[in-house]
Amino acid sequence: MLNIVVCVSGGGTNLQAIIDGISAGTIRNTRIVGVISNNAGAYALKRAEQNDIPGFCISPKNYESRADFNQALMDKLAQLNPDLIVLAGFLVILPQQMIATYRDKIINIHPSLIPSFCGTGYYGLKVHEEALKRGVKVTGATVHYVDEGTDTGKIIFQKAVEVLEGDTPEVLQKRVMEQAEWIILPKAIDEIAMKEN
Ligand code: GRF
Fold first, then answer.
1. Is 108 helix (H, G, I), strand (E, B) or coil?
2. How many domains does the chain have?
3. Cβ(11) to ligand 1 under 6 A?
């Protein structure tokens, strides 16, 4: 059984895709042991609650120092003891200690075809704004392992999505989520879970 922790900051639609994949059996041999968010208002925490998954808000705002926040995050992860950590829109700079402790056990979903439109500052709608500004005809999403860099770890899966005439960043973001993110992230988790055993 692959025990996973999903780290979130926002709406949690990727978390929902994982929850739905596990219940539908398209993600095999996997259990979500916890959801961690830095944002108390994240709807993703509601989704966890609705599915009886332990949810935890660990926000830098609630700690005296960054070091205290980092320690709280590491303590929670140690308590949950995941085999895999899934970053699904987690807008937090990860402690170096976390990357070292869980080396090759952290994956991230990025809403572009890396190496395009990625790196520092490229998250959320900005990714799609830049893709539209550049005039690319194809974009997509990437699932990759997390290393010390930003969006630089080994690529696991990518899926292309067409950019259509008249797309706004919001419309393009939704298409990339529906046609790519919600497909390749569950697929990556299932593959890792099946490799496990
Ligand atoms: C997704 O667009 C993902 O690509 C990016 O952050 C967003 C998270 O959305 N990393 P949600 O919280 O899963 O709905």
1. strand
2. 1
3. yes
